[in-house]
């Protein structure tokens, strides 16, 4: 992603490499190295790791300027690409990713696409998930802002009723692949990550999917926090929007995969991953007229910071291991989406964003426009996903070993940032 004539000061580069290796991804932790499953595999099998392929990770930003529509449209295009390239018209997004992280609207998309239905398939296709956001935008992202409604919060908002109808009694355990969905917990004053890996190990970390979606999309400036409890009632969360904690969940997804040796035993660095990160457009700074708008723009700024950090971590791969789909103001003024846009406007703008040339973060140099459009990048990434799927058919060792049971009451996924929040 860096121009060939771009030179980085060697000392500065080495300092940042040490920082990211030791503190972001834990490579400097001798204990982690000592306990790594790959260290117990005979040397002759290490080459099999390359043959097995890479861990495929999907990350979806919070609502952004398009209320999740840009990410949903991206996934529709990607799913169509996978169906066309694989020759299977029934392919689902969940089949081609090993882990998903989503915040806010991205968390809802992750839940829709990765929760297991009664037929064993994902509840929604990408097209159906897009339609879900379109049909229910006003219920999820634009609830009534009356003072009485905020003070006297009803037992269940329209969004919560919608999630109840959609997910029923499904819990985090009912997801098909590792799922990570953050919120901000007002009890502990810290981010809380709903994690399938944690849920499989302890009922105190298993939550109903309808509650997870309500928690990650709860806008504190409109409806106030959402109070939920785990299945066993031991963990209480007073949640607000996941975008406040981590609007771009890519870093937490990468950290989870690298530390979750139970399910990803051979993933030891970013070169062992394929990561797709989906943004949702940038808001118009001149259209900020409410606390909710300020929160949204702050989240978008934090997303860009995460993109810069992750791009830095992947710079040595010199491959398309990390792909970011996002609109950016330097490309076109039309990318600055105003808050009063209708759904038809958002759909049209999202299509325009996908057709524009992509922007990539450059180490220590901000961003640059590249030749490929966002659609072309999705097409290329879809091809890489197909290749990984085919490669695994002939691999000696599995790149992923998904957990399906709860062997003991312990937490191993290294995603939960707080202990059991509180008792009643």
TrEMBL record:
PNPLA domain boundaries: 59-254
Keywords: Hydrolase, Lipid degradation, Lipid metabolism
DGA/G (motif): residue ranges: 241-243
EC number(s) reported in the record: 3.1.1.-
GO terms assigned for molecular function: hydrolase activity
Family: Belongs to the patatin family.
Function summary: Lipolytic acyl hydrolase (LAH).
Domain notes: The nitrogen atoms of the two glycine residues in the GGXR motif define the oxyanion hole, and stabilize the oxyanion that forms during the nucleophilic attack by the catalytic serine during substrate cleavage.
Name used for this protein in its record: Patatin
Organism of origin: Lupinus angustifolius (Narrow-leaved blue lupine)
Taxonomic placement: Eukaryota, Viridiplantae, Streptophyta, Embryophyta, Tracheophyta
């Amino acid at each position: 992603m860096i121009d060939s004539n771009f030179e980085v000061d060697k000392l500065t580069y080495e300092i940042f490499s040490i920082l990211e290796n030791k503190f972001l991804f834990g490579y400097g932790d001798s204990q982690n190295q000592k306990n790594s499953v790959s260290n117990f595999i005979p040397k002759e099998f290490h080459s099999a790791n390359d043959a097995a392929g890479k861990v495929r990770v999907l990350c979806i930003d919070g609502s952004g300027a398009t209320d999740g529509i840009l990410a949903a449209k991206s996934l529709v295009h990607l799913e169509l690409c996978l169906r066309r390239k694989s020759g299977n018209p029934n392919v689902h997004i969940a089949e081609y990713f090993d882990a998903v992280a989503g915040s806010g609207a991205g968390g809802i998309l992750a839940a829709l696409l990765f929760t297991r239905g009664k037929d064993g398939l994902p509840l929604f296709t990408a097209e159906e998930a897009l339609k879900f956001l379109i049909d229910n935008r006003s219920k999820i992202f634009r609830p009534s802002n009356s003072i009485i409604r905020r003070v006297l919060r009803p037992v269940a908002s329209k969004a919560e009723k919608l999630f109840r109808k959609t997910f029923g009694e499904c819990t985090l355990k009912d997801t098909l692949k590792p799922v990570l969905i953050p919120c901000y917990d007002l009890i502990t004053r810290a981010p809380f990550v709903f994690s399938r890996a944690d849920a499989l190990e302890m009922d105190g970390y298993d939550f109903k999917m309808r509650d997870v979606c309500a928690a990650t999309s709860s806008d504190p400036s409109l409806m106030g926090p959402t109070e939920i409890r785990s299945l066993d009632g031991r963990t209480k969360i007073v949640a607000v929007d996941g975008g406040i904690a981590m609007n771009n969940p890519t870093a937490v997804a990468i950290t989870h995969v690298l530390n979750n040796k139970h399910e990803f035993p051979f993933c030891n660095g970013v070169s062992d991953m394929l990561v797709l990160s989906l943004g949702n457009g940038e808001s118009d700074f001149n259209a900020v007229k409410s606390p909710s708008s300020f929160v949204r723009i702050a989240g978008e700024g934090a997303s860009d910071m995460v993109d810069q950090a992750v791009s830095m971590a992947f710079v040595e791969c010199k491959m398309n291991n990390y792909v970011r789909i996002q609109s950016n103001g330097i490309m076109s003024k039309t990318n600055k989406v105003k808050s009063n846009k209708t759904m038809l406007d958002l759909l049209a703008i999202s299509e325009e964003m996908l057709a524009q040339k992509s922007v990539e973060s450059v180490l220590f140099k901000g961003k640059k426009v590249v030749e490929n459009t966002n659609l072309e990048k999705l097409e290329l990434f879809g091809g890489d996903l197909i290749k990984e799927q085919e490669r695994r058919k002939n691999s000696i060792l599995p790149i992923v070993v998904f957990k399906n049971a709860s062997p003991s009451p312990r937490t191993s996924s290294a995603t939960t940032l707080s202990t059991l929040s509180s008792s009643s």
